[in-house]
Amino acid sequence: DTTNALDALSQEGLSVEPVQHEKEAGGSGGRTWEMVGGGGGEKQRRRKKGRSRIVSLEEEDDETEGAEENESGGGCGSERQREHPFIVTVPGEVARGKKNGLDYLFHLYEQCHDFLIQVQNIAKERGEKCPTKVTNQVFRFAKKSGASYINKPKMRHYVHCYALHCLDEEASNALRRSFKERGENVGAWRQACYKPLVIIAARQGWDIDAIFNAHPRLSIWYVPTKIRQLCHAERSNATASSSVTGGATDHLLF
Amino acid sequence: DTTNALDALSQEGLSVEPVQHEKEAGGSGGRTWEMVGGGGGEKQRRRKKGRSRIVSLEEEDDETEGAEENESGGGCGSERQREHPFIVTVPGEVARGKKNGLDYLFHLYEQCHDFLIQVQNIAKERGEKCPTKVTNQVFRFAKKSGASYINKPKMRHYVHCYALHCLDEEASNALRRSFKERGENVGAWRQACYKPLVIIAARQGWDIDAIFNAHPRLSIWYVPTKIRQLCHAERSNATASSSVTGGATDHLLF
DNA sequence: AGAAGGACCAGTGGTCCGTA
DNA sequence: AGAAGGACCAGTGGTCCGTA
């Protein structure tokens, strides 16, 4: 499988941010990213969790710009960790700087699939109820397995983007190229993933649940509420239009 | 369909029981079934809910033994209503007295199926998530539709009995005849339904979920925890036995 | 401002146990 | 005692919003 190869696409290391509970501590109140490890003697910093550094399963690191602060155990140990934010990358592109690319995003969905299969195997062995979808139980298992970078809000947020990637990789790739070229941010790209999905649904009788269920990798994900609503609204719109105009003027509601 | 014909199998009317909140009110403290409508002047009776009399969809009543107390609107209106308890009946038999038979029990499962289909149709129309099982939502819908005699604990309690009825009606009928003949109560019959189900599962690779899902009427019901556990325990037992004895001494764990 | 994710909340599956 | 079902509870799907 492709697990290890794709893991190399993630920027190594979690983002490291100081936790400040006193608003006035930093003076400017803005981002204090660069203060970590060298900062002054602010009080009120607290360690919230033990540091866990588990993003990459391999140790290769050809992206050693600057001193990755969280590599050295130094500093006062008071940082809160998050994954690097996503940026729009084209297929095969590795994100530079403290960013993660979209190949890595999609790879997280594959990892969840693997965790689901493990949970299913355990359930079968024990004669317990066997989940067919990525449930809370699976997210809990992933976390317990060390994949602390996987969480439910993130995965749910981008499900429809992954759906487009699964259902029409060409269209998905084209969208990525276009949005990267125009310098759009991840949020704009994410929004733009809805429209092609709705068009796919239109072609297949508007049954987005059937479309998800028919795809082996997509079937384990709950259909996001928003894409379901868009399909429904667009179908109503299409039906109304076609009943008046004979179907010539259908226009997406976006 | 058979809805109306089968409804006639239910004993008409709900059980009517006085609600006593003061333990000492009745003197004997026992059942006060016959006191309704003619009772003395006990205080502390309270109406808990409006009376709803909706068990039968037809009005035919060829079982008019005694005066059905809850037919007349008389009395002080302080009764709490329940369905008549089930008794073991043979196929086609109508329960006598204030009892309901097993054909009626199984018919409730078919009614739930109908309610599920209605809920599904509404969900599809609205573009909402569409349940594939009899969920809380379906029970709520049934109640709202006037089927107050359908409730979750009851339906869940007898699911495995219905499963046997669906999967091997001959075996189910034979069991009913045997338990009626021996004068066993419903609880004993219910317990006895587990064993033939486990034997069916054994024949089909122990996958009780697959067995439920493969059957069109059964697939809408969650597999009861207990039958899942029995299948698992029995499979482990069978595997252990066969690995030692070559499979000649398998014996059910009941 | 754009974005990651802890944590909350309404409604679920499951069934106990107060009731008669 | 045998049995029906109101009502509770732990853990769910869903996503908001406090955080940086």
Task: Spell out the blueprint of helices and strands.
The structure is a homodimer of 254-residue chains.
Chain A: H1 3-7, E1 15-18, E2 79-82, H2 102-126, H3 136-144, H4 152-157, H5 159-167, H6 169-181, H7 186-192, H8 194-203, H9 208-214, H10 225-245
Antiparallel strand pairs in A: 1-2
Chain A binds a DNA duplex (20 and 20 nucleotides) through strand 1 and helix 4.
Rg of chain A, rounded, reads 22 Å
For the secondary structure, the number of strands of chain A is 2
- Tell me, briefly, the overall form of chain A: flat
- Residue runs with pLDDT of under 50 for 5 or more positions of chain A: 1-8, 12-78
Most extensive contact:
A-B, 13 and 13 residues
Strand proportion of chain A, as a percent range, falls in under 5%
Order of helices and strands of chain A: HEEHHHHHHHHH
Decide which structural class fits the backbone of chain A. mainly alpha
Biggest pleated-sheet summary of chain A:
2 strands, antiparallel
Fraction of residues of chain A in helices? 40-55%
